[in-house]
Design goal:
The protein is mainly beta. It contains no helices and 6 strands. It has a single domain, classed as Bacteriophage SPP1 head-tail adaptor protein (Thrombin, subunit H, Beta Barrel).
Amino acid sequence: MSIQTLYNKSATISRRTLAATSYGAAQKPTWSNHLTTVACAVQPLTAREMEAFGKLTGEVTHRMFTAAGQDILPRDRVVVGSTTYEIEGSVDAAGRSHHMELLVHEWVES
C-alpha cells in the first residue's frame, strides 16, 4: 500500500510575508500569499489548555503527512477545511524523498 492512499484531506499552504501597517513603519505578518494545494493526512499528537488574561486557550499539536518535494517552510500556514494550522517544522521523514512530515499547531479559544 502506498502512503499516498492515506492522504484523505486537501490542504492549502500560505507563505508568511510582512506587510507595512497604515503608519508605514512597523510591519505585521500576513499569510495572503497562496503557495499551493496539496493532499495530506492529519494525525493529532498532544493537546493542552492554558489560561491567559481571563481566556481559556487550547493548543493541539498534530503531525501532518504530505508528498515529498513540497516547498513548505516553518512559519507557513496550512488550512484544512475550516481549521488553520501553523507550521512549526518540516522534515523529509523517510530520508529518501518518500514523504514529508510537518509538525503543526492549532489554537483553539473558548
